[in-house]
Amino acid sequence: MDWQGQKLAEQLMQILLLAFAVVAFATGYISGSFQMMVLIYAVGVVLTTLVTVPNWPFFNRHPLKWLDPSEAEKHPKPQEAVSAKKKPAKNMI
């Protein structure tokens, strides 16, 4: 799953869960059944999981182009700079 696919999966999850929560609450309120509300929301969670968790092809529309290993050897990693110890600041009061 690429970066845009992760963003899409997150947005789909939020939208679907919110939509199922609203529908479940409205149905439960109108019918006066807490059990119906929980059942509808549980079905929504399962459907949302089936849509967002698997690595579906539409989540892979923007694949990353990795550097070829032979090219990576030509460009060494940058060295970390060793920083000198900082002197404690004197409080001038």
Describe this structure in words.
This protein has 93 residues and is mostly helical. 58% of the residues lie in helices and 0% in strands. It contains 3 helices and no strands. Helix 1 runs antiparallel to helix 2 (34-52). The longest helix has 29 residues, at 3-31. The mean pLDDT is 86.
Work out the number of β strands: 0
Helix content: 55-70%
Low-pLDDT windows of residues: none
* Secondary-structure element series: HHH
**Overall geometry:** flat
Q: In terms of quaternary structure, what is this?
A: single chain
Estimated share of beta-strand residues = under 5%
Tell me, rounded to a whole number, the average pLDDT: 86
Counting helices, strands and paired strands, the structural category is mainly alpha
Main sheet properties: none
For the termini, the CA-CA separation is 57 Å
Roughly how many Å is the radius of gyration? 26 Å
Task: Give the count of helical stretches.
Answer: 3
